[in-house]
Amino acid sequence: MTEPELASARAVADLTDGVILAVVEIAASPERVFHAISSAEIAGWWGSTDAYRVTQWDGDIRPGGWWRSQGISTNGKAFAVGGDVLEVEPPRLLVQTWRYEDKPGDVTTVRYRIDAIPGGSRLTVRHEGFTDRASCDGHAHGWERVLGWLGAYLLGDEGRKPGNA
Known about the structure:
CATH topology: Alpha-D-Glucose-1,6-Bisphosphate, Chain A, domain 4
Number of helices: 3
Distance between the termini: 24 Å
Helix content: 10-25%
Number of strands: 8
Largest sheet: 8 strands, antiparallel
Order of helices and strands: EEHHEEEEEEH
CATH architecture: 2-Layer Sandwich
Number of domains: 1
CATH class: Alpha Beta
Radius of gyration: 15 Å
């Protein structure tokens, strides 16, 4: 990226191993991206009017901490997802478990890696631990949408700084 622009998010699912790899390049600093994925600011960008959306986010982002999102699904039903924080190295790494409250036995792991690139940041998401092929495939499409929402949100984020969101 030479000028601020939004690159398309891409995701690939390895259905055999239950792993998703998704990536997006964003015209924002690693610090800004890290703040947007690790704070209550998530409720401001994760979702859309024609899809599910997060309405509340809480967490304690430190190794041994926790996180929890609540929202509304596409059919209007409330949902909640959360987990434990495993690793944190601001502004380049966040690793956490992911567990839907209505499916407590299905636990996956999400690893966010943020790399500085010319003009912004590259966010790479590795989501692993899927035992159901359909769920893995569906989440791959979901990550493309989510990273697109994040990129669009931060593209319109002129002048904001981490902590002032």
